[in-house]
Amino acid sequence: MKSKNISILGNGWLGNSLAKNLALEFININVSNRKEHCIFEKTNINHFFIDIDNMYYKDNNFFNCDVLIINIPSKNIKAFRYLIEKIEKSSIQNIIFVSSTSVYNDINATIKESDNYEDKDKVLYQIEQLFLKNKSFNTTIIRFGGLLGYGRHPGAFFKNKIVKNANAYVNMIYRDDCINIIFEIIKQNKWNETFNCCATTHPTKKEFYTYSAKQLDINLEFEENITSSYKIISNEKVKDILNYKFKYPDLLKIIY
Description:
By secondary structure, the chain is an alpha/beta fold. It contains six helices and 14 strands. The strands form four sheets. It has an eight-stranded mixed sheet, with helices on both faces.
């Protein structure tokens, strides 16, 4: 595999672990967040202070990379347009944009990437399009389901709350699979693609959260006397194109 320099915009729950894992395989990893100081034990991880919402970029060396991974929750379209201007002036050839299956509405059916069921009015979808339509670089979109693991225990998500729409199906993914999929995209040079990424099984909310809550000895309340709306996100494309085998394909077999 050809050596690559990688920059990760966003050093949160996913980005921090992603940086540490990628640093095991690649020469140089740049990581940004909105804090002035951030310390990594690995010497090939460099920290940068960037706040795209306020259009603050302290050091343009962050963009001296082959691959940029964008992993931030911002929905500021103006800020992303300015970010793209910065990227256009850089050496970046390939981008991974971490998005979400929330770009799809509940349509009471299974959704594949090719179905074109995205809600065009959603800001996240519009931001995706800013990158996909730009010909200055290649962009691969990853739409993750709900994120699980390492401090995100679903058994505690609804503690002291009522779980609504209990008969709807869940679309979730464990963090290890998130990181492994990103690694495979870079390794295999799978650019200009859109991937739905979630576990293979889709239990109902009642099944999933009851199973998870038992691990914490928590009892949950469910609101069931309404018609459930749902979507089931297919992961067939990521398994086919990347030949990816999920580490946690069955949500009802995960021990947190």
